[in-house]
Amino acid sequence: MKKPRSLIPFVAIFVAGFLAGVVFSAWKLESFGDRTVSPVSDRGPQQSGQSDLQARIEAIERMLAVNPKQVDALIQLGNDYFDLGNHDKAIVAYQKALLINPMNADVLTDLGISYRRSGKAQHAAKAFRKAHEVDPNHTVSLFNLGIVLRDDLKDPAEALKAWEEFLKQAPDSPHAVMVRPWVKQLQEKLGQASETTGSGSKQ
User: Fold this and answer.
1) Range with the lowest mean pLDDT among 50-64, 101-115, 182-196?
2) CB pairs under 8 A, 24+ apart, for 59-64?
3) Rounded to two decimals, what is the model's pTM?
4) d(CA 78, CA 88)
């Protein structure tokens, strides 16, 4: 006589599938947020929806306990910790995602922002440089790099280089309006002159 088959494996598969659907539908909605750092003060943790974020974090961590190499889940976990303001845990999640896919410029940029908000400016600059290295068209990493170099690392010459390159690559970007006066200020401070502060698409 056959033994009845256990329902446990089927229940586990159903739960894992349900959690994956919740996580990845949320990831599609939230993975392309603002990836810039502030030259004055950083945005703090989100005050609304924290219970929802915490519930999703717990669901993702249960999923990763079964399969720790789900890169999209790791990225979402990092994003959720980021939004809670827990940047130390966001850094860990982003680092694990980058071990699987080291060529993701968006994750490198989010990692850089989390480093900066954790007071690790050198690590932040390294992450932003790496983001631009793996994707030379990823101009937001240059924008962020300039802010960290100028405001945190007190290196105006390197900040100027980053922002001049940013203006060459993205002269019509909304951020270019902010960067042009910063470039002009640094050029005056360093006694330099450049055409990159011109308007429009002049390069």
Assistant:
1) 182-196
2) 59/19, 59/22, 59/23, 60/19, 60/23, 62/19, 63/16, 63/19, 63/20, 63/23
3) 0.75
4) 10
